[in-house]
């Protein structure tokens, strides 16, 4: 074969294209047949199955870096639409055509492969996959594992030219994180400067943000993907109501790009208006939407989706501390990411987002404050209805509340509702009560604005709902409450009026009569004393 040097250049080009940044150790090889091997190493998050195909055989001169006597390999039956016979010579024209291939992903369109030896790697990652007893030549190793809805990815085509080699698996993949925003001062330990963390607390009908975050690593193995698709999946519990997408941003280092609505596909068909449901955001090829000066496979890329939501009247209310809260008894949100995980899925076409990260949870809390109005003292039987109250926040701003028949308590108003004063109940079964649900953590002032007739209003009651919350495991959360809950409630006591009775009543007459009698007695005393002195000659 005259074109051995051209083939070497072609083979090197293919190897560099398909194995960029792949750790590879080439050992010197002899001219003996069946003396070569290919060993694949890596951290196998899931089980992988590999197939190896012999494309060409030949004599490799390690000293000169050249091949000779090139023949089609045992696993090739066609090239460029024409049949070939394994063991037949590879023509100069075929080598010239193959040398023009610059993307390993296009190889299946040019080569018709059949057969191939299979080897399996388990999840432990402790055993390598070794193909031994190979004739010197040109091989393609293909990861044929089906990773649909699994958190793993296929390795790209591994193009190996002759010799004995140890090759690292090429299965780069992204990570996913979901976060919820809290007020910065109240955010859980470990939250970022904007208050984003794994848990938060909010009032019912208070708008706040969730963040979905996909991180695509700075891994050169990703260069094997002709396109790269990602799909965000978000699910809300029934107590959470979706409001809308705030932003979709692609970041790399200091560079940032805000995507337009036309750059992604938003599907909210599964959102439930009353609360709960799910939505997806799909990006067909994130490689076309990178910020300026970003290099795919070299720079880490972060894609963030921020959306607004609020707790609704169906939210779970926390009245006391808890350990190990679950999706059954908390306001939770969850999400996961689908991503392209097979660079050779279609032989150079669009790679579908078949990979699936683990589901990530976040938690949102809201609290209850129980209040009971009493007369004279807070003993049973002294409950008092008809007292009017307002609630104020730490800045002395009134909090709009409304009585919710379904909750049998007052709650924060929503758009379109008119706030009303709280009134302690006069009903027999709930006498004196006016409970409040759906409060955020923080400082509050409860102010009696109109006491029942005959009673004095109590002074302002200042109280604190203190809360610390933190994700315990991937699917449980802890909450510690202070100042509210665990049997603590506001027992508000009014005292009776202590002013004098009104003028003209019996009390006034008795008062005047008593004063007149005292004056008469004093006169009698003075007259008697004067007569006594005269009798004694004084």
Describe this structure in words.
The protein is mainly β and 538 residues long. The protein has four domains: 4-168, no CATH class; 175-363, Immunoglobulin-like (Sandwich); 368-496, Immunoglobulins (Immunoglobulin-like), CATH 2.60.40; 502-538. The strands form nine sheets. Strands 15, 17, 20, 21, 24, 25 and 26 form a seven-stranded mixed beta sheet that branches. The chain has a six-stranded antiparallel beta sheet with strand order 14-13-16-22-18-19, with no helix packed on it. Strand 5 and strand 6 (82-83) form a beta hairpin. Helix 1 (4-18) runs parallel beside helix 2 (92-99). The model is unreliable at 4-33 and 499-536 (pLDDT under 50).
Residue share in helices? 10-25%
The CATH class assignment of the largest domain is: Mainly Beta
Amount of beta strand: 35-45%
As for the CATH topology of the largest domain, it is Immunoglobulin-like
Helices and strands: which structural class?
A: mainly beta
- Shape type: rod-shaped
Q: Regions with pLDDT < 50 over 5+ consecutive residues? A: 4-33, 499-536
Please, how many helices?
4
Number of domains: 4
Compute the gyration radius: what is it? 40 Å
Largest sheet: 7 strands, mixed
The span between the termini is 166 Å
Number of strands: 38
Average predicted local confidence, pLDDT: 83
What would you say about this model in short?
With 538 residues, the chain is mainly beta. It contains 4 helices and 38 strands.
List keywords for this structure.
single chain, 538 residues, mainly beta, Immunoglobulin-like, 4 domains, 7-stranded mixed β-sheet, 4 helices, disordered C terminus
């Amino acid at each position: 074969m005259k074109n051995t040097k051209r083939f070497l250049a072609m083979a090197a080009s293919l190897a560099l294209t398909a194995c960029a940044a792949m750790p590879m150790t080439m050992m010197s090889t002899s001219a003996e047949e069946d003396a070569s091997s290919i060993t694949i190493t890596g951290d196998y998050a899931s089980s992988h199955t590999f197939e190896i195909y012999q494309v060409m055989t030949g004599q490799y001169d390690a000293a000169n870096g050249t091949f000779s006597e090139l023949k089609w390999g045992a696993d090739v039956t066609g090239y460029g639409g024409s049949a070939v016979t394994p063991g037949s010579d590879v023509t100069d024209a075929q080598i010239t055509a193959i040398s023009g291939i610059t993307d390993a992903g296009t190889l299946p369109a040019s080569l018709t492969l059949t057969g191939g030896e299979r080897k399996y790697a388990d999840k432990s990652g402790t055993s390598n996959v070794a193909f031994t007893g190979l004739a010197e030549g040109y091989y393609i190793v293909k990861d044929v594992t089906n990773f649909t809805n699994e958190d793993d990815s296929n390795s790209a085509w591994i193009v190996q030219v002759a010799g004995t080699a140890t090759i690292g698996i090429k299965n780069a993949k992204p990570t996913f994180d979901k976060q919820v925003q809290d007020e910065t001062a109240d955010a859980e330990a470990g939250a970022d400067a904007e208050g984003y963390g794994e848990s938060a607390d909010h009032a019912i009908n208070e708008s706040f943000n969730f963040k979905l975050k996909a991180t695509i690593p700075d891994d050169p193995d990703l260069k094997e993907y002709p396109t790269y698709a990602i799909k965000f999946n978000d699910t809300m519990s029934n107590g959470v109501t979706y409001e809308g997408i705030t932003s979709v941003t692609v970041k790399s280092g200091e560079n940032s790009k805000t995507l337009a609505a036309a750059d992604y596909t938003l599907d909210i068909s599964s959102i439930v208006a009353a609360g709960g449901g799910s939505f997806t955001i799909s990006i067909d090829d994130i490689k076309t939407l990178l910020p300026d000066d970003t290099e795919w496979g070299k720079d880490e890329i972060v894609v963030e989706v921020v959306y607004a939501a609020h707790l609704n009247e169906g939210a779970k209310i926390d009245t006391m501390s808890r350990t190990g809260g679950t999706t059954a008894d908390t306001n939770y949100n969850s999400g996961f990411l689908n991503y392209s995980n097979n660079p050779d899925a279609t032989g150079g076409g669009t790679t579908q987002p078949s990979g699936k990260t683990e589901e990530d949870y976040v938690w949102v809390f809201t609290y209850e404050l129980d209040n009971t109005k009493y007369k004279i003292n807070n003993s049973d039987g002294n409950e008092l209805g008809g007292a009017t109250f307002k609630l104020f926040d730490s800045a002395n701003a009134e909090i709009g509340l409304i009585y919710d028949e379904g909750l049998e308590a007052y709650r924060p108003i929503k758009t379109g509702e008119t706030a009303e004063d709280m009134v302690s109940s006069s009903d027999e079964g709930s006498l004196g009560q006016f409970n409040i649900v759906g409060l955020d953590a923080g400082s509050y002032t409860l102010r009696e604005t109109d006491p029942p007739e005959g009673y004095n209003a109590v002074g302002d009651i200042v109280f604190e709902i203190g809360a610390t919350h933190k994700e315990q495991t991937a699917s449980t959360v802890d909450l510690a409450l202070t100042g509210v809950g665990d049997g603590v409630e506001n027992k508000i006591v009014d005292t009776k009026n202590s002013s004098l009775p009104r003028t003209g009543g019996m009390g006034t007459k008795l008062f005047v009569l008593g004063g007149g009698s005292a004056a008469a007695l004093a006169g009698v005393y003075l007259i008697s004393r004067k007569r006594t002195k005269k009798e004694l000659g004084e």
